[in-house]
Design brief:
Number of domains of chain A: 2
Order of helices and strands of chain A: HEEHHHHHHHHHHHHH
CATH architecture of chain B: Orthogonal Bundle
Order of helices and strands of chain B: HHHHHHHHHHHH
Number of strands of chain A: 2
Largest sheet of chain A: 2 strands, antiparallel
CATH superfamily of chain B: MetI-like
Number of strands of chain B: 0
CATH superfamily of the largest domain in chain A: MetI-like
Oligomer: heterodimer
Largest sheet of chain B: none
CATH topology of chain B: MetI-like fold
Radius of gyration of chain A: 24 Å
Strand content of chain B: under 5%
Distance between the termini of chain A: 53 Å
Largest interface: A-B, 93 and 88 residues
Shape of chain B: globular
Number of helices of chain A: 14
CATH class of the largest domain in chain A: Mainly Alpha
Number of domains of chain B: 1
Helix content of chain B: over 70%
Strand content of chain A: under 5%
Structural class of chain B: mainly alpha
C-alpha cells in the first residue's frame, strides 16, 4: 500500500474515494434513472420506453400539482421563518448570556434524537379533536367544546415542523454568534451605539451566515416532507411528497412520480438560490 | 452592557471603589424565553411515555390510572419482534459501514491536501440536504431497475447514504486535534503503516469511532421514509409503528413501544456524547 500510494495527494484521494464514490453514485445513478423514467410512460405494469414530454406536460398543466407544489413551498417557507425567528433568541442567549453553553446545547439536541415519526405522531395526539390539548382545556373549563381548528390543516403542519426542526436553526445561528469578535461589540458601545443599535448594526449582520445556513437546512428538506402532512395535515395540509408517494404506491405511475420528484427538486433549488441571493443582499444593506 | 467575558477586572474594582448600588430589577426575558422554549421542545416528546402508563385507550385528560399492561402486551407480538430484529440488523450493518467509510474519508480530509478535497467533503454532506422523499423514490427506482428487490439490503444501502454525513463529521472532529508527531514517532521506531494505524492512531480515535457507531445506529434505527419505500415486506420498527398508528385500538401499545424507542435513542445519544467528549480530551 505504502509503495503504491507514495504521494500525500494520492493517499488522500484513495482514503476518501470510497465515501465520495458511494454518495456520488447514489446521487447520480438514481437521478439518471429518474430522468429516464420521467420521459417514459406507464400503462398498468408495462413501461413504455418511447420518449415523450407527456409527464412534464401533465405536471405543468395539472392544477393539483401546481397547487400542492406552491403549498409545499409556502409551508416550508413559513416553517423556516417561524423556526429561525423562534430560535434566534435561544441561540443569542446561549452565545452571550450563559456560561453553561454545553449543557444548553445538549438539552436542545436531545429531543431531536428521538424518532421523528414519533414526535410528529405526538403532535397528532396533542392537537386532535379528543386530544390532549382539547381535553386539558375542557377539564380546566377554559373552553366549552373542543377546538376544531387545531388539527388537519396547514397550521398543524407548520407547528409540527417548526418543533421538529428547531435544533437545525439554533445550532448554525449559535455558531455564527459565537464567532463574533467580542471587541467589535465593545467598540460599538464605545462609539456611542445604543444596545439596540449595536444589535441591528453589528450582531445581526454578522450572524447572517448562520441564519442563511439554518434556513437552507430547514427549508430544503421540509418542502419534501412526507410524514408530517400525512399525519397532521389532513386534506387541507397535503404536500407534494404525498402526491409523489401516491404515484409510487397506490396509483402505480412511476414515470409521473419521477417527473414530480424532479420538478420538486428543481423548485426547491430555485427557491433556495433565490433566498440566498435575497438574504445576502439584505445582510449587506443592514450593514 | 458588556459581555461577561469581556472585562474580568472591572467587577471587583467597581465593587470595591463605589458604594454598593442596588441594580433596578430587570425581568430576565431571555432566560425566561429560553426555559419556555425548552418546555415547548420537551412536552411533545414526554407525552408518549406519560400516556403509555395511562390505564385507558384514549390519549386525553383526565388520566385514568397507572398500568404497565401496555408494555407487558408488547412481548408476545411476533411481527413486532421481527420488526425489532430487522431494525437491529439494519442499524448495526449501517453503523459499521458508514463509520468505516467515514473514518477513512475524515482521515483523508484532516490529514492530506489533495485536489478535489473540498468537492469530496461537500459531496459526502449532500445527503443531509436532499428531501427524504426524493432520496427514497429515486433509490427505489434505481434498485428495481437493477433487479434488486426491496429488502433489508436495500434499506441498508439507503441508510448508509443518510448516515454517512454524521459519521464523517464526527470522525473529522476526532481527527482534528490528533497529534501527528505520535504517528511519526511510531514510524521512526520501526512500525509499519498498518501497524502504526492499528496501534497508535486507532486507539486514540477509538472514542470518536464509538460515538460515530452509536449516532449512525440511532439515525438508522429512527429513520422512516427510506425504510417505508425500500423495505418491501421486511418492515423495520418505524415502518411497523407506521402500520399500527392507524388502528385506534392499538394506540396504547404503540405508545408503549414508542416510549421504549425514545428511551433507547436518548440513551444511545448520551453515551455517544460521552465518548465524543472523551475523544476531544484524549486527542489533546
Amino acid at each position: 500500500m505504502a509503495g503504491l500510494l507514495r504521494t500525500e495527494a494520492s493517499k488522500g484521494i484513495a482514503l476518501s474515494a470510497p465515501a465520495s464514490l458511494y454518495v456520488g453514485l447514489l446521487v447520480a445513478a438514481p437521478l439518471g434513472i429518474l430522468v429516464a423514467y420521467s420521459f417514459w410512460t406507464q400503462s398498468y405494469v408495462e413501461i413504455d420506453r418511447t420518449l415523450t414530454w407527456a409527464n412534464y406536460l401533465e405536471a405543468a398543466t395539472d392544477p393539483l400539482v401546481r397547487h400542492l407544489m406552491l403549498r409545499s413551498i409556502a409551508i416550508a417557507g413559513a416553517v423556516t421563518a417561524a423556526t429561525v425567528m423562534l430560535a434566534y433568541p435561544i441561540a443569542y442567549f446561549i452565545a452571550f448570556r450563559t456560561r453553561k453553553k454545553t449543557l444548553w446545547l445538549l438539552l436542545i439536541t436531545i429531543p431531536f434524537w428521538s424518532s421523528y415519526l414519533l414526535r410528529v405522531f405526538s403532535w397528532k395526539l396533542i392537537l386532535g379533536f379528543n386530544g390532549v390539548l382539547n381535553s386539558a382545556l375542557l377539564s380546566l373549563g377554559v373552553i366549552t367544546e373542543p377546538l376544531t381548528f387545531l388539527l388537519y390543516n396547514e397550521f398543524a403542519v407548520v407547528l409540527t415542523l417548526a418543533h421538529a426542526w428547531a435544533p437545525f436553526a439554533i445550532l448554525p445561528i449559535y455558531v455564527s454568534l459565537q464567532k463574533i469578535d467580542r471587541s467589535l461589540l465593545e467598540a460599538a458601545t464605545d462609539l456611542g451605539c445604543s444596545k439596540l443599535e449595536r444589535f441591528f448594526r453589528v450582531t445581526l449582520p454578522l450572524s447572517v451566515p448562520g441564519i442563511i445556513a439554518g434556513s437552507l437546512i430547514i427549508f430544503i428538506p421540509t418542502v419534501g416532507d412526507y410524514v408530517t402532512p400525512s399525519l397532521v395535515g389532513g386534506s387541507q395540509g397535503k404536500m407534494i411528497a404525498n402526491l409523489i408517494q401516491v404515484q409510487f404506491g397506490p396509483a402505480n405511475n412511476w414515470p409521473l412520480g419521477a417527473t414530480l420528484s424532479l420538478a420538486a427538486m428543481a423548485s426547491v433549488g430555485f427557491a433556495a438560490i433565490l433566498f440566498v441571493i435575497l438574504a445576502t443582499a439584505l445582510g449587506r444593506r443592514i450593514r | 452592557m458588556s459581555t461577561p467575558a469581556s472585562d474580568p477586572l472591572s467587577k471587583p474594582l467597581a465593587s470595591s471603589l463605589s458604594k454598593p448600588r442596588r441594580k433596578p430589577f430587570r425581568f430576565p426575558w431571555l432566560p425566561a424565553y429560553a426555559t419556555g422554549y425548552l418546555v415547548f421542545l420537551y412536552l411533545p416528546v414526554l407525552l408518549l411515555p406519560l400516556f403509555s402508563f395511562n390505564d385507558g385507550t384514549i390519549v386525553a385528560f383526565p388520566m385514568k390510572g397507572f398500568t404497565l399492561k401496555w408494555y407487558a402486551q408488547l412481548g408476545g407480538q411476533d411481527t413486532l419482534l421481527q420488526a425489532m430484529a430487522n431494525s437491529l440488523i439494519v442499524g448495526a450493518v449501517t453503523a459499521l459501514t458508514a463509520t468505516s467509510l467515514g473514518l477513512f474519508a475524515a482521515r483523508a480530509y484532516v490529514r492530506y491536501r489533495f485536489k478535489g478535497r473540498e468537492l469530496s467533503e461537500g459531496l459526502v454532506m449532500l445527503p443531509l440536504v436532499i428531501p427524504g422523499i426524493i432520496v427514497a423514490s429515486s433509490m427505489l427506482v434505481l434498485f428495481i431497475s437493477l433487479g434488486l428487490k426491496p429488502s433489508l439490503t436495500t434499506v441498508i444501502l439507503g441508510h448508509v447514504f443518510v448516515a454517512l454525513p454524521f459519521a464523517v463529521s464526527i470522525m473529522k472532529s476526532a481527527f482534528d486535534d490528533f497529534d501527528q508527531s505520535l504517528e511519526e514517532a511510531a514510524f521512526d521506531l520501526g512500525e509499519s503503516v498498518i501497524g502504526t494505524f492499528r496501534r497508535v492512531t486507532l486507539p486514540i480515535v477509538a472514542p470518536g469511532i464509538a460515538a460515530s457507531l452509536l449516532v449512525t445506529f440511532t439515525v438508522s434505527f429512527d429513520e422512516f421514509v427510506l425504510a417505508f419505500f425500500l423495505s418491501g415486506n421486511q418492515p423495520t420498527l418505524p415502518v411497523y409503528i407506521w402500520s399500527q398508528i392507524r388502528f385506534p385500538a392499538k394506540l396504547p401499545n404503540t405508545l408503549a413501544l414508542g416510549s421504549l424507542l425514545l428511551l433507547a435513542s436518548v440513551l444511545l445519544l448520551l453515551t455517544a456524547e460521552y465518548f465524543r467528549r472523551r475523544s476531544a480530551k484524549s486527542a489533546k
